[in-house]
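Propose amino acids for all 312 sites.
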């Protein structure tokens, strides 16, 4: 099968098309014929070698950890899906990722794609959607009517987090370029702050939760907007517990856990029209397409998710 791999760490020019063996599903697994995948920051962070101590993979590495496609083979002991069903999944983080024509995954991690959702839309959801869900609810404990600040609301994770928080009846503030404010208010944001011209920490206060998708100085300033006993949840870098104590708040770091049940919850939201996938950019499944997609992701200026179309 065709796959796009890296055989050493480094720049996007290391993304190379190769023929590799088609995987065979084992006990409890399914083989998925891929229609689409999407780009996430973990992709280029692994490519550059930033995560090699945390994820010590052997080469070659197939990047990508979002999948949408059709069940091709049902492995021994697997019974959740039938051949031909449309599914999407955030598979386990192994060196056999989703920049490929076929993948295998534990069937327990997958969910059915709603009929009203395309493969490209479905591919945009698993990693970003589960990240938003686990940050807001599992780690953040966001409750009905809570006040939440979601950083980088126009990004892949942020745009989904706003919609999920809206369904909780939360009061939502977000940071984003002014050109995206109209879209974000349609998604459910109550307050949109242009980070280029306004310091969010000077205009917000008394928040229950901050969802940090940026890290660095953004994280450091975010403590100031939280109420006593509030919570800061980051998906970028572990918060400083000593600083959190100084502000009288709690903190947590989220490293995504693949979860088929939660993915099914997200599928239900999409089926009901409560969660809209935001596909901002689409690229072809070629070396050039993947390199351009990585460059866009690294720029931090992508709107919504970056999707790779593998099969029409």
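Proposal:
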């Amino acid at each position: 099968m065709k796959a796009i791999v890296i055989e050493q760490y480094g720049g996007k020019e290391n993304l190379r098309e190769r023929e590799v063996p088609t995987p065979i599903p084992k006990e409890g697994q399914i083989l998925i014929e891929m229609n689409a995948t999407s780009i996430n920051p973990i992709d280029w962070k692994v490519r550059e070698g930033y995560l090699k101590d945390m994820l010590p993979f052997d080469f070659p590495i197939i990047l990508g950890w979002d999948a949408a496609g059709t069940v091709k083979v049902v492995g021994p002991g697997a019974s959740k899906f039938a051949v031909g069903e449309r599914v999407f999944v955030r598979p386990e983080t192994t060196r056999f990722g989703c920049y490929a024509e076929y993948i295998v995954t534990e069937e327990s991690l997958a969910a059915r794609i709603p009929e009203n959702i395309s493969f490209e839309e479905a591919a945009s959801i698993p990693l970003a959607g589960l990240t938003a869900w686990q940050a807001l609810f599992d780690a953040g404990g966001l409750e009905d009517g809570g006040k939440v600040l979601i950083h980088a609301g126009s990004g892949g994770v942020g745009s989904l987090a706003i919609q999920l928080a809206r369904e909780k009846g939360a009061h939502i503030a977000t940071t984003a370029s002014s050109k995206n404010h109209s879209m974000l208010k349609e998604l459910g944001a109550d307050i949109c702050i242009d980070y280029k011209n306004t310091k969010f920490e000077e205009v917000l206060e008394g928040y229950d939760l901050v969802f940090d998708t940026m890290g660095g100085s953004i994280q450091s300033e975010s403590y100031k907007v939280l109420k006593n006993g509030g919570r800061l949840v980051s998906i970028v870098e572990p918060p400083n517990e000593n600083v959190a104590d100084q502000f009288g708040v709690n903190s947590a770091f989220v490293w995504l856990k693949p979860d088929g049940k939660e993915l099914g919850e997200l599928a239900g939201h999409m089926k009901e029209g409560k969660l809209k996938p935001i596909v901002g950019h689409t690229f072809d499944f070629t070396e050039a397409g993947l390199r351009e997609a990585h460059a866009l992701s690294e720029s931090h200026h992508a709107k919504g998710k970056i999707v790779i179309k593998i099969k029409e």
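The first helix runs from residue 41 to 48. The longest strand covers residues 29-39.
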